[in-house]
Amino acid sequence: MRHLNDLSVLVTGGSRGLGLLLARQCVERGWNVTITARDQEELDRAAALLRRRAGRRGTTVAARVCDVRDKYAVRDVVARTAEDQRGLDVVLGNAGIIQVGPAEATGEEGFRGAMETMFFGALHTSLESLPHLRKSSVGGRLGLIGSVGGLLPVPHLLPYACAKSAIGALAEGLRAEQAEYGVSVTAAHPGLMRTGSHLQAEFGGDAAREYAWFATLAGMPLVTMSAPRAAERIVDAVERRRTRVVLTPAARLGATAYGMAPTLVTRANCLVARLLPDSQEKEGATVKGHGLAQDENAARPRWQSAISALNERASRRFNETARQGT
């Protein structure tokens, strides 16, 4: 497919990880991009990375602080982006958080935080963007980033799974409602990707052991997908107006199996849950992956540390750490 040129794009959660790579894909297609996130310092680093590429293509990159949990902040950033870029053609709702641990340790506040950031963040982004997308001369395109965890609930990732499941329903429902206005909505459900997101995740319960399994799984080459490749596939799907895209063979297999045999898959999940860290702790403080990665007292097998290191290298490239990537 020949790429469209000179589109106006807004990417929420665009300062690091998958969001940064989605923005980079748009820049490489010659599109004008605005990224948003909550952290000004992260945004500045991300914008600098993107502008290096944009300068060679004659496109623009803007960065604006925005907390997607605040619908008025979203309304303002959408309006300002549409004004500065003479409209909006593509919006990618990617802002999110990851909480790892048993549901009891995560507690109600953990679930509420996941829903506020991911589901309501996607809802605010969608509702504020749709009036502008309907005016697009090339047909507006909205992409909402779900997860295979929203299609197949995963133990010790339940707040994330609940929020991502709601995003999937929102995307497919909005697609049906907006079709008559020429706006397409794409639900993207990535599997595990090597973005370094384990360093930004929040861990509860037996935090050190939760970090160990999550960081290892998130870095395994045969299970995970290259993050730049995932971003390319997602932007392709949005551009081509696809309804849904599920990335990685393992994610497609798991989602299909759950749809066809939910009882069997749920029983398998029961076995998986027994292998995960057993913590009876109730609600408590969570620990960021950054702190756990730097804990020299944490005993981890050498093979586990080696696999995690693959993902930590990705984190430096995709702005997941305080160090600037390339």
Give the tags.
326 residues, Rossmann fold, 12 helices, disordered C terminus, SDR family NAD(P)-dependent oxidoreductase, oxidoreductase, Sc_DH/Rdtase_CS, SDR_fam, NAD(P)-bd_dom_sf
**Helix vs. strand class:** alpha/beta
H/E order of the elements?
EHEHEHEEHEHHEEEHEHEHHEHH
Residue share in helix: 40-55%
The average pLDDT is 87
Secondary structure: number of strands: 12
Q: Which spans have pLDDT < 50 for at least 5 consecutive residues?
A: 322-326
CATH superfamily caption: NAD(P)-binding Rossmann-like Domain
Description:
- The chain is an alpha/beta fold.
- The longest helix is centred in the middle third of the chain and has 31 residues, at 103-133.
- The chain has a single domain, classed as Rossmann fold (3-Layer(aba) Sandwich), CATH 3.40.50.
- The protein is globular.
- The strands form three sheets. Strands 3-2-1-4-6-7-11 form a seven-stranded parallel sheet, with helices on both faces.
- It has helices at residues 17-28, 40-57, 71-84, 103-133, 148-151, 158-178, 207-217, 227-239, 249-260, 262-275, 289-293, 302-317, and strands spanning 8-12, 32-37, 61-65, 90-93, 99-100, 141-145, 184-189, 193-194, 202-203, 225-226, 244-246, 287-288.
- It holds the Pfam family adh_short.
